[in-house]
């Protein structure tokens, strides 16, 4: 009997030791992404390659479909961190938020949308858009503002020269075009390439190439969350940086194979070509530091679109300290 109890006691002690050696329970972070797109490949790499887990984090990802919905989730504590356009933090700040939303890590550095034409003879000119119906993105959102910025550079007044539709919900834009609405549409990948494969339209231009470097999509959190969870945010940012470097040093095919589970209804070849297109135009940021020059360019685009509430200094809504620490020590 003594031997039996000794055996049980030894077993319990062994379990305790093994549990102790296993380290602390991963810290959970609830992350809301504004849409599901190959544009965010580094994020999915951080998840699929276990880079968040390496940092002791359990990141729970949900798609909130639209900048307004994503920011609502963040402000109402439905998410800890949001991946969304930087312009949303400016809008919130202009409303006098007592707990401002701070951009702490940049994921993409160009516009991620493409111009898809329903009918194209193979000799595209920006003037082709004149007097045509353009199915654009949500008013005040970064895709629409960057799109208008490019159109103006090409000598097209988006308010006069095209029939601009902005009343369709973000999640339904692609379906609306597929059902016959609009001559042109502004889409992210892989949707743009899927439409091209299905013969619904053809990619004729890249807004990313035309609009230049801007902090298009960033990770952000409320100031209170950053203050209370700085160590976790640093780990999160480190994982993002590792993922950005992973994407840079691996082929589009390798990246596509790694993130395929996030696009189960999309052919692997489409995912690969979409990633390659983004890599070629340098859409993926190579590091998470959001530079002041890019922040100012963002506000210039917002101003030209008539959507900038007021100029906001870089240091007021951008925290580069965490990202700089991560990139310096890696």
Automatic annotation (TrEMBL):
Subcellular location: Periplasm
Record carries keyword Signal: yes
Keyword Signal: yes
PROSITE patterns assigned to the protein according to its UniProt record, in alphabetical order: PROKAR_LIPOPROTEIN
PANTHER family: ALIPHATIC SULFONATES-BINDING PROTEIN-RELATED, TAURINE-BINDING PERIPLASMIC PROTEIN
UniProt source species: Bacillus paralicheniformis
A Pfam match: NMT1_2
Alphabetical UniProt keywords: Signal
Lineage, opening ranks: Bacteria, Bacillati, Bacillota, Bacilli, Bacillales
Record's protein name: ABC transporter substrate-binding protein
Family recorded in the similarity comment: Belongs to the bacterial solute-binding protein SsuA/TauA family.
SUPFAM superfamilies reported for this sequence: Periplasmic binding protein-like II
GO CC terms: periplasmic space
């Amino acid at each position: 009997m003594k031997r039996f109890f000794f055996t049980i006691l030894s077993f319990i002690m062994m379990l305790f030791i093994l549990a102790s050696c296993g380290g602390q329970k991963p810290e959970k972070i609830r992350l809301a992404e504004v849409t599901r797109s190959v544009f965010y490949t580094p994020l999915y790499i951080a998840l699929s390659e276990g880079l968040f887990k390496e940092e002791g984090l359990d990141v729970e990802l949900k798609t909130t479909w639209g900048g307004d919905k994503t920011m609502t989730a963040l402000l109402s504590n439905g998410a800890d961190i949001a991946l969304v356009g930087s312009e949303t933090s400016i809008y919130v700040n202009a409303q006098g938020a007592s707990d401002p939303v701070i951009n702490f890590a940049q994921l993409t550095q160009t516009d991620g949308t493409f111009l898809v034409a329903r009918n194209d003879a193979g000799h595209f000119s920006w003037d082709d858009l004149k007097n045509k119906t353009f199915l654009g993105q949500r008013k005040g959102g970064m895709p629409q503002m960057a799109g208008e910025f490019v159109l103006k550079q090409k000598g097209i007044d988006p308010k006069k020269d095209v029939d601009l539709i902005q009343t369709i919900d973000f999640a339904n834009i692609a379906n609306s075009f597929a059902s016959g609405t609009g001559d042109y549409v502004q889409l992210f990948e892989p949707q743009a390439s899927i439409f091209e494969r299905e013969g619904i339209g053809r990619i004729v231009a890249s807004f990313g190439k035309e609009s230049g470097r801007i902090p298009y999509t960033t990770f952000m959190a409320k100031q209170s969350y950053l203050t209370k969870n700085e160590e976790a945010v640093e780990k999160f940012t480190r994982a993002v940086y590792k993922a950005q470097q992973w994407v840079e040093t691996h082929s589009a095919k390798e990246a596509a194979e790694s993130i395929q589970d996030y696009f189960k209804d999309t052919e692997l070849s489409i995912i690969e070509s979409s990633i390659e297109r983004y890599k070629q135009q340098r859409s993926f940021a190579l590091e998470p530091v959001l530079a002041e020059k890019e922040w100012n360019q963002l506000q210039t685009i917002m101003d030209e679109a008539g959507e900038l509430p007021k100029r906001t200094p870089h240091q007021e809504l951008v925290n580069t300290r965490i990202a700089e620490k991560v990139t310096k020590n890696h």
